[in-house]
Structure formats: structure tokens, C-alpha cells
Amino acid sequence: MYYEKVTVVAPATLSNIGAGFDVFGLALNEPYDVIEAQRAARKGVFITSISGADSKRITMDPSRNSAGIAAMEVLKAGGADFGIEISIRKGIRPGSGMGSSGASAAGGAFAANLFLEKPLPAEKLIACAARAEEVTSGGFHADNVAPAILGGFTIITSYDPFEVERIEPPVNLGIVTVMPDVFISTKEARKVLPEKVELKKLVYHVGHASGLVLGMVKGDISLIGRNVMDIVVEPSRAHLIPHLHEVEKAAKEMGASAAFLSGSGPSIAAIFDMQKVNGRAIADAMKKVYETNGIRCDTWVTKPGSGCRRIE
Ligand code: HSE
């Protein structure tokens, strides 16, 4: 199929999800970015517009913009003798912890791939998008871009060589995300992480990460919830996120199976069983903590979603 112009939806994602730092990721049904790309005769990638949520923070320089870097990586890898112009509509604001840069990177890579005569396979696309994450966040991590491209729940089983696995999440898995009006740069939030981890913490994380994966495979939300545990990364970042523990407690009191810091924050996510618990009530309880403390926030009651897809 030969495209002149495409429009792609690129979803928000949760990452880390307890013990899976830089490894676990989950695509959300909403919110999402929309990327339009058009073939250009001149080589290179050109960002023609950025609009939507807090878009003024985002550079239009394609060598520093997530979508631009990822698209360029794909065109280079595919040996393209043409360029593309990209227009970005942000549905996920930057510095949210919901994979904003990852969505744009995934969308840019996915859109560029649609123009190639021989499209790259998904794993290669993910690696191209992760390269954009490396430039913008200061660390090569693919836990947002993998689910943003593949959809569902993803596990980066290895970075070198790069390998990723995808699991279809349980159908009754509900997700709440609450995003307070606080900006957190992933680059800065990675600087507070410990360089070394004690052996007993490693054991704890391997156990809980394994339990979570088993819960996903068995479709057991209670098992997933019991295993969303992090004694390394979230505690190191807790001081950056106002009212983190109170918001998590509020979610659990309303029946959430687990509540946790989404990616590098400030968004806080909760998971729940859609057949048993009211997600809106969880979202309201989490939001109330912020409102009581004079902090505005946005909430989504959503579910796992698919990866990048062409809509036009
Ligand atoms: N795994 C990354 C981190 C995700 O926690 O730094 C950033 O969204």
C-alpha cells in the first residue's frame, strides 16, 4: 500500500507497574496522541505543528522532538530516499508519567514505517522509538514505547539483544489514572534512583514481578494487585510527588487492587476488577485528596488498549 498521508493514534502507557522498572508496560485505551504524517520529496523529518495538552513545552526541532527522532531512525533504518512532515496533537501532556514522550515516539516511528516500501518489524520499530526516549529522557528505556506500539501488557525481557514479549491483559482489568498539575521530567526523576540495589530487594522484586506476570497470564486481578510492589524505585521518587501515599491509600480504600506511581510520575494509577468495583468511585476518591490540598488534577477511568493504529 502506498501512502501519501497518514493519521495515527498513539496511546498513553503505564510503565514500571510495581517491580518492573524499565521492563513492564501497559497500553491504555485513553488518552492518546494523534500524529499526522505526510510524505515529503526532500529528505529528513520536519515538524510542522504541535498542538494540544501543554504543547508549548515541546520543541519543534526534529532532532530533539520524540516523534521526530523516532521517525528519522525509522527512515534511516528503512533506507528511505524521501522525507516526512509531521504534525502532532498531544492528548497526553509532557511530564505526566503516562508515557507522553513514548506515545509521540511510538506514533512517529509507526507513521514513518507506513511510508516504507519494506516496513520494519515491530521489534525494530520499538528500538527506533526507544532511541528517541534515550535522547529525551537520558536513558534507553522501552517500557513505554513497547506497549504504545504493540498494545496490551508488554515485558522487555532483554535489552541486549533487544527482546520484548506481549501478553493480552485480563478483560476485566480496569485502570484509573490521576494526573496532578505537577510537571516531572523523567530525566530528573531518573537521577534520584539508586545505583546499587541490595540482594534482598532484588529477591523481592523478582518474586513480585513474576507474580504479576502470572496474574496477567491467568487473568487473576487479585494476584496482579498483590504483586504490584516496588521497594526500590517508587520510594526513591516519593518525595517528588505530592500526596502520593494518601492518594494510593484513598484508591485502595475504594476497592482498588493496587495503586502505584505511573512511570516517573506524577500520575498515580490504580487497577481494579471491572466486574466488582466502581472505577469512577476510585477516581473520585483519589481526586478528592488533591482537591482538598488545593491541587488541580485530571482523571481517567479506562482499560488496557491497543497499540498505535492508523485511523486515516
Ligand atoms: N521506566 C521509566 C522510568 C519510565 O521510570 O524512568 C519513564 O516513563
What order do the helices and strands come in, and which of them pair?
Elements: E1 5-16, E2 20-40, E3 44-52, H1 66-77, E4 83-90, H2 100-115, H3 122-137, H4 145-150, E5 153-159, E6 162-167, E7 173-180, H5 186-191, H6 199-218, H7 221-227, H8 233-237, H9 244-253, E8 258-261, E9 268-273, H10 279-292, E10 297-302, E11 309-310
Parallel strand pairs: 3-4
Antiparallel strand pairs: 1-2, 1-11, 2-4, 2-5, 5-6, 7-9, 7-10, 8-9
The chain binds L-homoserine.
Detail the poorly predicted runs: none
Count structural domains.
Answer: 2
Instruction: Write down how many β-strands occur, each being a DSSP E stretch of 2 or more residues.
Output: 11
What distance separates the N and C termini? Answer: 13 Å
- State the CATH class of the largest domain: Alpha Beta
Which descriptors would you attach to this protein?
312 residues, alpha+beta, Ribosomal Protein S5, domain 2, Alpha-Beta Plaits, seven-stranded mixed beta sheet, four-stranded antiparallel beta sheet, 10 helices, globular, binds L-homoserine
How would you describe the overall organization of this protein?
The chain has ten helices and eleven strands. By secondary structure, the chain is an alpha+beta fold. It folds into two domains: 5-167 and 306-311, Ribosomal Protein S5, domain 2, CATH 3.30.230; 173-302, Alpha-Beta Plaits (2-Layer Sandwich). Strands 1, 2, 3, 4, 5, 6 and 11 form a seven-stranded mixed β-sheet that branches. It has a four-stranded antiparallel β-sheet with strand order 8-9-7-10, sandwiched between helices. α1 crosses α3 (122-137) and α6 (199-218) runs antiparallel to α7 (221-227). The two termini are 13 Å apart. L-homoserine (HSE) is lined by residues 15-16, 21-22, 99, 141, 143-144, 186, 189-190, 263-264.
